[in-house]
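Hey, resending since the last one bounced:
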Amino acid sequence: MTFRLFARPGLVAPFKATIAALLALSLVACQSTELTTAGLMSASGPRAASALAGEAEIRGQSTLVLDYAIGRTLYEEAADGLRYPASLTKMMTLYLLFETIGEGRLSLDSELVVSENAVSKPPAKIGLKAGSTIRVRDAAQAIAVKSANDVATVIAENLGGSEDGFAAAMTAKARSLGMSRTQFANASGLPDPRQISTARDMATLGRALLSRFPQYAPLFSVTEFEYGGKSFKATNKLLGKVPGVDGLKTGYIRDAGFHLVATAKRGGRRIIVVVMGGEKGKERDAKVAALIDQYLGAAQFAER
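The structure tokens again:
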């Protein structure tokens, strides 16, 4: 599936594909998952989102451990319970960005225009200025490391024309990946009752992101990066501390609690661990680390 990259003056040349084409193609592709036209367009209506999959549990806790190579679930606890995904959402934002690059509609050196709306987003952010531009490579790194909300909106507006339009594309892509209980309303994961997912769906997304775009995996292992004269540290505190951990994404909003989708490799074997709804960041991190030890064995076998 493709969708239109909305060109701005002096940015990139306009493309033939349109967001309408994405929605039409997505509907055909998703008929096997019983996604209706109303469901596909429901990113603009909170009632429709609830009708699609229900309401998320406030700070609901979920856990899932997935064997990366074969996609087999090794452990799960409330893995299908509806949760607010918070910034785990940004894995899908990056998925669509990488897909657009792969289709030749953007390059890593393309410039994305920053709007007033993007600048207005609350932290975490990297402090972009309205009317400026940011390179795609810097935008991707800012999302992967700092989980920047301003950058997520920049990507959404440049690729989808609006955040609503991009959210519809995100939900359509989720359905095509088999994420049956996920609905997106924005590109960042900022609070919105329509923005819902599950630990199982987030594991599916994490595995798809790494397997489809392995060339971008190093973005998620960076512990610190610089932009605009400032240094930003990674939100994933397990990087460089827990042997074998080399990605993926953290998330937090008040109603969600502390989330982490982590990927780790030891002894030639890789797993994805999803923990959602932690009371504190340290508690979440400790649980993920313990699960990695349990399913990958002692840390001395870690591969760096």
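Residues 19-301 form a domain with the Beta-lactamase fold (CATH 3.40.710.10).

Sorry for the duplicate.
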